Amino acid sequence: MVAIGKDTVKKHKALKVILIVLSVIVILCIGGFFIAATHTQLVVGFLQKIADNGKPLNSFEPLNEPQNGLKENGQYLISEIEYAKDYPNSFLDIIYPDENREIDRPTLFYFHGGGFFAGSKNMGDPLAANEATALIDDLCAAGYNIVNVNYALVPDEHFPVPLIQANQAFSYIMEHSEEYHLNMDQVILMGSSAGAIISCQMGTVITAPEYAELLGISPALTPKQVCAIVADDAPLDYESFTLGCKFLVGNYVKGSIFLNKDELNRYDCIPHMTSDYPPSIMLGSEYRYDMNEMNDKLDELGVKNELVDPYAERGEEKPHCFVANERNDTTAKDAFDRVLAFLEANT
User: Fold this and answer.
1) Predicted pLDDT of residue 201
2) Cβ(318)–Cβ(332) under 8 Å?
3) What CATH code is carried by the domain that includes residue 119?
4) DSSP character for 327?
5) HSE (CB half, 13 Å, CA atoms) of 116?
6) Which pTM was predicted?
7) Do residues 65 and 122 make contact, with C-beta atoms less than 8 angstroms apart?
């Protein structure tokens, strides 16, 4: 027999220890990922602490002092209007191009982004490297009365509460349209990122009774009232999402990245869209796949629509919700001008 030296035995023992340690690390990593993936608020809650700037995420009181008067840019602002009392953050602002509020203009409802865990009507989307609030000012300056809507965030509320709140905001403005001089027969729904999801889903709720029933929402608006949808980089096809996006949207839907068939059916509105869907313009950058999918669906249905895709058109990879950089970037300015042209043609 060949004798095994002490050094060889020591090496075998060391290798065994290393393998055990690596196995434990792998098991812990897998276990940690599974816990995070099925308790997504653990991760999202950490992000919220970074993004909240010391302000509460959800509140039944306005987070800013109400205003009623001219802004520095000459636009007229009425802020912190409570549109309902059922859920937190049920406040909206109305912005007019100037102090002559009685001019008949289309009404554009805007929903901010922020992954359903951050952002607000005042700050825009912290996940998008752009000036979302400047975008709203420029939309208003182009001749639209803006209704800028806040909605509840996780962990206090989940899907479809922001859609219920959007519907409540529509109802409130319908009831007070004369008071605020807002035309509710020429309505535009627009949102960026999470807000674009809300806009696309509400467009489907309003025009597809089956989808409205699936979400338990009785739409306040009729299809004839909504003349256009502007979807600014909306992640809609869950199965195509990156892991990071699944954490945000999965957390919003159920607190886990593992959505079942029924949950996916309720979330993804594209398969539910009908030929009554409003004319739409989609802007795709980070979520260009989803915007292309929506474009294909609307083409199939014969719905008037336009797709703005800088990568397909120019070979340019643009950041999330790039159109809000329209003051500083020529591609974003071109996209913004195309949005305005589309809205003018449909209002």
Assistant:
1) 98
2) yes
3) 3.40.50.1820
4) T
5) 29
6) 0.90
7) no
Helix H or strand E encompassing 250: helix 243-253
Asked which of 55-59, 77-81, 109-113, 266-270 is least confident by mean pLDDT, the reply is 55-59
∠ CA(17), CA(21), CA(25), 5° rounding? 170
Q: In the block, which residue shows the tokens 């008949």?
A: 104
Residue 225 lies in a domain: yes
Cis peptide before 271 (omega within 30 of 0): no
- Give the SS3 label for residue 300: helix
- Look at the chain and report how many structural domains it folds into: 1
Are the C-beta atoms of 45 and 57 separated by less than 8 Å?
no
- Which residues, including other chains, have CB under 8 Å from residue 31's CB and lie 6 or more apart? none
Residue 95: its H or E element: strand 91-96
Which residue, 142, 131, 147, is CA-closest to 91?
A: 147
Reported as type and span, the H/E element at residue 308 is strand 305-308
Q: Which residue has the tokens 């398969």?
A: 271
DSSP conformation letters of 215-256: HT---SS-TTTEEEEEEES----GGG--HHHHHHHHHHHTSS
Secondary-structure breakdown of the chain: helix, strand, coil percentages, each rounded to the nearest 5: 45, 15, 40
Name the residue range of residue 118's domain.
57-346
Cβ atoms of 153 and 117 within 8 Å: the answer is: yes
Specify if 169 maps to a domain.
yes
Q: Are strands 226-232 and 183-192 parallel, antiparallel or unpaired?
A: parallel
The amino acid at residue 68 is N
Is 3 contained in some domain? Answer: no
Residue 105 lies in a domain: yes
Give the residue-averaged pLDDT of 39-61. 84
